[in-house]
Amino acid sequence: MHDMLNLENRGIPSVGVATTEFIEAAAVQSEALGFDPAYIWVPHPIQDRTDAELHALAEGHVDRIIAALTEQA
Fold it and tell me: What is the dihedral of CA 67, 70, 42, 20, to 10 degrees?
């Protein structure tokens, strides 16, 4: 999240992509930093997925990621 804040402060849009396992942690850190970043949440876990599953997951979220980035611009 610090990297996203740094990018945003330099005028570069950013979007975090993380699994739903980290929603609470991101909310706590967001509040501590006073920063409300854009996030795309994907199902947890990631590590045991096959390449094909990861490609499908990415394809299923790429439009939302692009939209979040371009809406900020």
Answer: -120
User: Domain tally for the chain?
Assistant: 1
- Better-predicted residue by pLDDT, 72 or 37: 37
Pairwise CA distance, residues 10 & 12, whole Å: 6
SS (H, E, C) the chain: CHHHHHHHHCCCCCCEEEEHHHHHHHHHHHHHHCCCCCEEEECCCCCCCCHHHHHHHHHHHHHHHHHHHHHHC
Q: Which domain holds residue 34?
A: 2-72
